[in-house]
Design brief:
By secondary structure, the protein is an alpha/beta fold. It contains four helices and eight strands. The protein is 33% helix and 34% strand. Strands 1, 2, 3, 4, 5, 6, 7 and 8 form an eight-stranded mixed β-sheet that branches. The N and C termini lie far apart (92 Å).
């Protein structure tokens, strides 16, 4: 075999290796909650401004398995005790972080309370703590799935650290498609509804708290 032939064979193998390498690197899809549909912003009267409360909305927490940007799912029809994550689809940030920002925006838009994001910047009258407990896609069959979101909200008086109110919120919703994109669509929609319920609960509880 001539040197030219050997060189050609080597080039072909190198090109084949490059193609194989490129195929092994699938494109990763990054998701967030999209544009959330907030309810109509309330008009704040001068009297409300004088008596409004300061509310620290702490960063939402999550268990260690959920404290990442993976999109989690379970196969109920096969092994419901095992959790999986999509290899080529993920959140732009951990779900707890995404929820925190949406909750802050919604409370600012729909209540008269003064929202504080960072405890080091100002002293707040009350604190809202959110524990995200579930944020998962569940497959009932190969071609059918739904999502479930669960969280616990706690309203605390800052001075006394007294728990004033607590609420467990959960929601389920069918996915439009049984894949990562379907999970994102349903989780985003359900998050919007759950935040509406959270704001309604908080609005009902705060007036009952004596300043």
């Amino acid at each position: 075999m001539t040197k030219i032939a050997l060189l050609l064979i080597l080039i072909v193998h190198q090109l084949a290796g490059c193609v194989s390498f490129n195929k092994s690197q699938p494109r990763v899809s990054i998701y967030d909650f999209g544009i959330q549909q907030a309810q109509t912003t309330k008009l704040i009267s001068q009297q409300s401004l004088q008596h409004r409360k300061s509310l620290l909305i702490a960063d939402a927490t999550a268990p260690s398995w959920l404290d990442n940007n993976a999109i989690h799912y379970r196969l109920l029809y096969q092994n419901p005790t095992q959790s999986y994550t999509y290899a080529s689809s993920r959140w732009i940030a951990a779900p707890a972080a995404l929820l925190t920002q949406q909750i802050r925006n919604r409370i600012v838009a729909n209540t008269s309370e003064q929202v504080i994001k960072d405890n080091s910047t100002a002293k707040a009258d009350y604190a809202l703590h959110i524990e995200l407990e579930e944020f998962t896609q569940l497959f009932d069959a190969v071609d059918a799935s739904h999502i479930v979101i669960g969280l616990r909200a706690s309203l605390v008086e800052r001075n006394t650290r007294k728990l004033l109110a607590q609420k467990d919120l959960s929601i389920t919703e069918k996915t439009p498609t049984a894949d990562a994109a379907g999970a994102v669509s349903a989780l985003s929609s359900a998050s919007n509804q759950l935040i509406n319920e959270l704001v309604a609960w908080l609005t009902a509880e705060l007036p009952n708290v004596k300043p």
